[in-house]
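User: Second chain of the day. Same drill as before.
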Amino acid sequence: MRVGVVGGGWAGASCARELSDAGCRVEIFEATAEIGGHARAETMNGVVYEPNGPHIFHTNDEEVARFVRRFGMTRPYEHRVLACIHEVADDDDPVIVSWPPQIEELRSLRCWPRIEVELDQRPPHPVGEDFETYAINLMGPTLYGIFVRGYTQKQWGRDPKTLSSAFAPKRLDLRTDGYRGLFRDRHQYFEPVGFNSVIESIAANAVIHRDTRITIDDLVTYAPDFDAWVVTAALDDLVGRPGLLAWRGVDTRPRFVAFEDATATVTAGYVVNYPDPRYSFTRTVESKHATGQPVAGTVVCEEHPGAPARHYPVPTVDGEFDQLNHELMEEVRDACPIPVDFCGRLAMYLYIDQDQAVRQGLDCARRVLRAA
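Assistant: Same format as last time:
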């Protein structure tokens, strides 16, 4: 069986490997010079950094964990996030605390008495279709204002009331148990040089066409060479109508800082959130905290939202763009003379983690094989 895969990120590479292991001839068409997509790491003056934000591989999916370990993902890592907060709008004295917020740490804030009253008034379980309502039900209006509102407005460029609460349970928490790791998954990894080599190993059995952007017309033109297509690319771009779907991009601005001490770092942690509107960026990412590189220098990235990139699909309350993406899937299927399937963050228009992208890739490959 001959299968063409559009896109060489986690989903595309995982799908290609599952298909090739089943005896298929697979060709990956990658729009850039290197596969790996959003998860690729780069280097500056020998220092590893992440141009598309922090990537910690975490999962409770045992099959996915076995799959990535098979290709070299072996280094355990517990991810911790910090937040630089201001208690009031005109307060110039920032405080570094844990994210998600820890009740024991919050007790030291000047506004704790108000927070405590609000927490006592919460419903038993957070509810609400929009992101803001859900967040306030979870942590009360004061903590929402300190930790979440400004960050969300910057990140998405929208009123939080217009965002769906569907992704909130995975992104918001209020801790009472003192556990400071961001994730609670059984399997958590971070490779010291990034995930480039892991994804490249996964895709190694496929023929890879680099710097090759595929359109809906190409799917039709190349159809005689294949028995099926798998698309992991953004569908508004694929059909030649970029901007039809709402995407939110991040402009990552890295700066190198030289040190004589090979263990030195600049920021308080690998990821530090800056939710207050006085900061134009949402967070800093200093990957050296996670890599442990013994190198005389470090790279600190500031993430400024609003770049013209497809980093995050916008999860609106009314689901407008989810429906549009579904319609684009049908348009692509109708135009192509051979079967087309879809998987991954971009093609599915979903805000998902790396392990979910792998899972989608494996499941998509199995659908293609069953349909053969």
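The radius of gyration is 22 Å.

User: Great, on to the next one.
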